[in-house]
Specification:
This protein is of the alpha/beta class. The protein has twelve helices and ten strands.
Length: 331
């Protein structure tokens, strides 16, 4: 909280179709400076905008969402990050998706903006390519405009709830970070309500701009996968593939130190991976026609290593404080 990108979020919401019927609540402490000054000015001149200067020692991400929920009055409550912006039709698509009375939550893709650095673009491409497995659909506009999905097919930066559904859960769990959005989505489904993913209800989300930031993001994804399984959510095996690959590298690397066949296994492992990474990068290049996108080849192992290491760290060091150790958003 406190980044100037926040105003791109606010401007897009205020200019969207149907924006005259919405309320915009900014939940989070903003340090003194130009950003806070502009937020105060906006809140004073636009009755739709309110700022809640809150921060919590425990469960900050969840509690800020819960504070916004309590302060809001609308029957449909959207939770979006402060580094996204929405297209003009976003509000209309979201409300249309809630027309069936059994829909409890709506989500949509998180697309990559165009005004970003090369590294950020590659990070976004990695998440929207086959390298990300089934979750890639959350970062692209798919062929199926509206479909009912399970909790793991939703995305936290673009998540909208029917008020009574999220209130029955007492909001977001402050003891669970990251992944509190997935817990809420699963809890909504357990109420017998449908979760809907609308590929046209997309937002534009700025990817990480540094290797360190991207590593932290993907590491947390891996650790969260184990925490969700431990919390009783459905076990899905395909997201565990990067952890298996990391383990295979360690095994083959150790074997290579003592046996010739270990060298052969390690070489075969790396060659097979490189072939798949090249195929995925060429597939992306065929779509984008940008030669720089071929740099996706080295980004893929970076992403898979971060995810796999995150899984193994969570297995052997459960419940590590990811918010502090890996960069809790500062204010």
């Amino acid at each position: 909280m406190g980044r100037a990108i926040l105003f791109k979020t606010l401007d897009s919401l205020r200019a969207a179709e149907g924006a005259d019927r919405i309320e915009i609540i900014i939940a989070g402490l903003i340090p003194e400076g130009p950003v806070l000054d502009r937020v105060r000015e906006l809140a004073a001149t636009d009755p739709r905008v309110r700022h809640l200067p809150v921060r919590y020692e425990k469960g900050d991400a969840s509690e800020k969402r819960n504070a916004g929920l309590r302060a809001s009055r609308a029957p449909i409550v959207a939770f979006i990050d402060d580094d996204v912006y929405v297209p003009p039709h976003w509000i209309r698509r979201v409300l249309a998706a809630f027309e069936p009375s059994d829909v409890g939550m709506v989500s949509g893709p998180s697309l990559v903006p165009t005004d970003i650095s090369l590294l950020a673009r590659l990070a976004g491409l990695a998440l929207s390519s086959r390298a990300a497995g089934y979750v890639a659909h959350r970062y692209i506009k798919g062929a199926d405009a509206v479909k009912r999905v399970k909790w793991s097919r939703t995305i936290g930066c673009n998540m909208i709830f029917r008020r009574e559904a999220i209130e029955k859960l007492n909001g977001f769990d402050p003891d669970f970070y990251p992944g509190e959005e997935m817990i809420a989505a699963n809890g909504t489904a357990k109420q017998g309500l449908a979760l809907v993913f609308d590929s046209e209800a997309y937002v534009y989300h700025y990817p990480k701009t540094t290797f360190r930031g991207f590593w932290r993001q993907i590491f947390r994804y891996g650790a969260t996968r184990i925490r969700l399984m431990r919390a009783g959510l459905d076990v899905e095996w395909t997201p565990l593939v990067p952890a298996v690959w990391v383990a295979s590298l360690l095994f083959c690397g150790a074997a290579a130190l003592v046996h010739a066949w270990g060298v052969a296994l390690l070489a075969a492992n790396l060659i097979a991976y490189a072939a798949v990474a090249l195929w995925i990068a060429l597939e992306v290049f065929a779509q984008t026609k940008r030669a720089s996108d071929l740099l996706l080849i080295p980004i893929q192992p970076f992403m898979h290593l971060a995810y796999g290491v995150g899984i193994w760290v969570e297995v052997f060091r459960p419940d590590k404080d990811l918010s502090d150790a890996l960069g809790k958003p500062t204010t």
